[in-house]
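Weekly puzzle thread! Below is a chain. First person to post its structure in C-alpha cell form gets bragging rights.
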Amino acid sequence: MNRINVIRFIICLCIAVLLKQSIHAQNKTKLEETPLDISYYRGDSLDEPIVKVIYGRVKKNTSTVFGEQIPFNKVWSTGAKVATEVKFYKDVNFGGVHISAGTYILYTVPHKHTWDVILSANLNGIGPDCYNPLFDRARVSVNVDQAASIEYFTIGFEESSTGFDMILRWDTTKINIPLKLENADNFILAKI
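Winning reply:
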C-alpha cells in the first residue's frame, strides 16, 4: 500500500510542476496591442466574397494621425506592423485600373489633400521598407475627405453609384477607393 501512495504522490507532484510551468508561461504571453482585422465585401450575395482585406488595426497615439503619427509623402503599409493584404475573388476595376482576381499588398502614400493608393504583387513584403514600385499593379490617386474622428484605423466597404468603394478611415480622415466588378453585366446575369 505504501508503494502505491508513493507513486500517487510522485504523479501528483509532476502534474503540479507541469501546471505551474504552464500557468507561468501563459502569464508571460503578451496580447497583441494592434490586432489583425478582416473586412469582406460580398455585394448582395451571401456566397463567395468579392474582396477580402486583412490588416492591422493601429490605434491613434498622437493628436493628429496623418502628418504626425503617419508622415506625409512616405509609403505606409496601410495598417499596423504587417502589410495589408487584399484578395480579389473576381476581376475588378480598381480606381480605373483593371485588376485580375488574386492577392495583393495594399500600400498608400498619404498627402495632405490626396493619397496615392498602390496594389503590389510582391506578397513577400511585410512593411513599407519592402515596397518596390517594380511590383505595382495599380497606383491611383484619391481625394481625402473629412469624417467624424475614430481612434482605430478601419477598412470597410460601401455601395456607390458606380459599384462599391473600399473605405479607409482613421482619425478625421476618410479615403474612398472606387471599385467595380469587371464584366458586371455578366455577373448580374449569372445571378439571375
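Puzzle host: Confirmed. Bonus trivia for everyone else. Strands lie at 36-41, 51-56, 84-88, 92-94, 97-99, 102-110, 114-120, 136-160, 163-181.
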